[in-house]
Design goal:
Layout lengths: L14 E5 L20 E5 L9
Parallel strand pairs: 1-2
Length: 53
């Protein structure tokens, strides 16, 4: 069973979403290229890699 972790969100929160695949409607961008103003990033992984993202 997955472990559920709860944390308090920063105030204010600027939430973003990142995924690691390329799609015509939402092209891939490197995780390091995300604007620093996002202080919460939800991550979705379709492909697993052995190196750092």
């Amino acid at each position: 069973m997955p472990k559920i972790i709860h944390a308090q969100l920063p105030t204010p929160s600027l939430v973003g979403y990142w995924h690691n695949w390329n799609d015509t409607s939402a092209p891939y961008i490197p995780l390091t290229a995300i604007d620093n103003r996002y202080n919460v990033i939800e991550i979705s992984l379709r492909f697993l890699y052995r190196h750092r993202i």
